[in-house]
Amino acid sequence: MSESEGSSGSGAVVGGAVATGCGCMMAPLAVGGLGVVVVIFGGLGVLFAPIIALILFFGGGGSGSDSGHEIDTDKVSNSVQGDGKGELNEKTVPTDLADTIKDAGSVCDAIGPVVIAAQIEHASSFNKDMLGSDGKKGISQLPPDKFDEFGEDKDDNDKTRATDPEDSIMAQGKYLCSLVDKVTPIVDASDTPKDKKPEKVLDLALAAYDVGFEKVEKAKDIPDGEAASYVFSVRSLFPRFEGIGGALPPDEYPTPSDYPTEAS
Questions:
Q1: What is the mean pLDDT of residues 193-210?
Q2: Could you tell me which CATH class the domain 90-223 is placed in?
Q3: Which residue ranges traverse the bilayer (predicted)?
Q4: Per-residue confidence (pLDDT) for residue 36, from 0 to 100
Q5: Which of 16, 27, 127, 255 is the most exposed, fewest CB within 10 Å of its CB?
Q6: Torsions phi, psi of 42, nearest 5?
Q7: What average pLDDT does the segment 97-116 reach?
C-alpha cells in the first residue's frame, strides 16, 4: 500500500486494544501505565501511533491519569494527522513573536500558525541567535539563499537579517507557501481523496522544505528517510502549539526515521 493510499483511511478511535500493525510499538507505553490506548486505522495512522502515544504518555495519560490533567485523545490524534490549521495557543510561544507567527501562518490558506510554530521549535527551539549548518542563521534556520529570496523587513527597522526573528519567521512562511504552490499539482495528479488533499499538500510542502522540492518532485510523495522523519517530527508538535497535548521533554520528541514505511 502506498503512503497516499494509506492516508485516505486514517482515523482515530479511543478503545481498549491496539490495532494490528501498531500494537508492537505502543505496547511498552501501555504497559508503562499510559492509561489510555489510541487505536489508529490506516497507513499513516500506524506510523503516527507511537507519536500520539508519547504525547499522551508525557502529557498525563488522559482522563485516567493520577496527574489530573485530562487530554482529549481524539483532538491529539486529529491534530497530529490534520491540516495544521488549528488555532495557535499564544501561551505556547514567546509573547513578542505570537503576532508574527500568526502573520506568517496566514500567508497562504494551506498553512496555519501552528505549522510555523512547530517548524521553529524543531529548527531552533525559538533560539533567535542559533547558528546552524551550511550558513543557516536565526530562529527559522532558513538556507541563506532562501532567506535572500524570501526575506523582508518585517519590523521596519530598515534591515533585513536572518537573525532578526520577525524577518526570519516571515521569510519562513513565504518560503513554505511557495512550496505549497509547487507541490499542489503533484497532489492533484495523485489518487489522494479530495478530503485528504489538504493534509497531503502540507506533508509534501514540509518534506520539500526539509530536503528540497526536486526530491519531492522525483518521488511524487514524501521521500523516505530524512524527509519522512522531518514531517513526522514537525507534526508531533502540532498538539503542543494548539494547547491540547502534553509537551514532551525536548529530548523526547520523536524523529521516526526508522518507523515502518512501504519499503520496510
A1: 96
A2: mainly alpha
A3: 12-31, 37-58
A4: 37
A5: 16
A6: 105, 160
A7: 97
CA distance 206 to 228: 9
d(Cα 215, Cα 260) in Å, to the nearest integer?
20
Pair 3, 222: CB distance under 8 Å: yes
Burial 85-117 (b: 16+ CB within 10 A, else e): bbebbbebbeeebbebbbbbbebbebbbbbbbb
Q: What is the mean pLDDT of residues 193-202?
A: 95
**51 Cβ contact list (under 8 Å, min separation 6):** 80, 232, 235, 236, 254, 256
C-alpha to C-alpha distance for 19 and 23, rounded to whole angstroms? 6
Q: Which amino acid is at 205?
A: A
**pTM confidence score:** 0.72
For residues 170 and 97, what is the distance between their CA atoms, to the nearest angstrom? Answer: 11
Read off the pLDDT band of 22 (50, 70, 90): very low
Strand partners for 131 = 137
Take residue 260 and report the three cell numbers written for it. Answer: 515502518
The C-alpha cell at 250 is 525536548
